[in-house]
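Review session, final week

We close the course with one last complete record, chosen because it touches almost every idea we covered. It is Glucoamylase family protein, a protein from Bacteroides vicugnae with 467 residues. Go through it on your own first, then we will talk.
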Amino acid sequence: MNDKYKRIAVMSALPLMLLFLSAIALTFQSCKGKSKNDNLTAATDSLSDDALMDTVQRRTFLYFWEGAEPNSGLAPERYHVDGVYPENDANVVTSGGSGFGIMAILAGIDRGYVTREEGRARMERIVSFLEKADRFHGAYPHWWYGDTGKVKPFGQKDNGGDLVETAFLIQGLLAVHQYYVNGNEKEKALAQRIDRIWRDVDWNWYRKGGQNVLYWHWSPTYGWEMNFPVHGYNECMIMYILAAASPTHGVPAAVYHDGWAQNGAIVSPHKVEGIELHLRYQGTEAGPLFWAQYSFLGLDPVGLKDEYCPSYFHEMRNLTLVNRAYCIRNPKHYKGFGPDCWGLTASYSVDGYAAHSPNEQDDKGVISPTAALSSIVYTPEYSMQVMRHLYGMGDKVFGPFGFYDAFSETDNWYPQRYLAIDQGPIAVMIENYRTGLLWNLFMSHPDVQAGLTKLGFNTNKQDVRQK
């Protein structure tokens, strides 16, 4: 910071000098006992909402800009400040997290964090990598080695196409396409290259022999042995919408209705924490918060509805409110949980990695900043309350690329580590709350609109957001 100091004229009159010294002494005494955190909290309280959001968004953007793997330009799966990587995977890049990251970069370009030329050059590097990297019937794996583009197995049998992570990546790429499609000659050329990647994804292949359901994985060595047909509701809704939207390998609407919605069984009205939910959440009554975020980084939930859900915005808002209410009730009496510190989702945990959810079995006392901050489009006032509180905690939770992935006050556990798939939604959803940029770009793609129409979605924007 470039602090400006006023000059103090030295006064020759002794009485005034004594008065001045007395004031200094009183100020010193009044400041005694104040901690660094007290001063930081006061400074945080004085920031406007927009200034605070910009600080958080800009710092998080740096994960995908300065922290990118140098050859591919894509997002590293993880970044550890201490440089310690137990699995030696610092050079491993992630497809889904990179999809989120390129949307964060788009927002950064639009805000002037980098120039439009710099941004286009980075996108060209990314697309050049994706054109040559391992693909499996057009679908990308969960991980690659960033220096070679060869698949890094996510698990022994998960060494091929990952259709869900591919959908997250394509969601970002279609937003990039729309950003450049009407630009200058170089930008239009980039958009055309992205269009070819989009058209090459063979969504139909992942129906496993023409079934009316999409399968998550296929491996060139293990085939369909992962055996994971995807049913709703969870984070995978965007996969079904893109599969229907494809102009080259589009699946029939029955795949969505029979597979994702299970012929209407996805509808299951119930209450959690006294809050109404309309959908059936796979394996739980209310899922982790990434279920309310990953599909909706580009897909605008405002006014979005179909025959199974009267308002996806209000459904996701209520899922967020369930998560918050659970943390406030805090049945396991964890330290720090409350109205200004809530948010359970998949993240690093005190024992490895876990999908923290609003129930006592899946609640491990870990707060993941991405959970509340990426919910800002649904619960702006409550999410800003968390943002201010966390920012006031200082460098214990805030580092070079924004808020660290997770922490636990109960366990005094504050790892200085990041995960791409958690950082991306923070920057993207802050931008969507501020301007709707990524929503507007993705939703403007004609193929996306055709896919939504094909599946019977309505996008009535008069469904005004409630704050």
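Two points worth writing down before the exam:
Residues 1-34 have pLDDT under 50 and may be disordered.
Residues 14-31 form the longest helix (18 residues).
Good luck, everyone.
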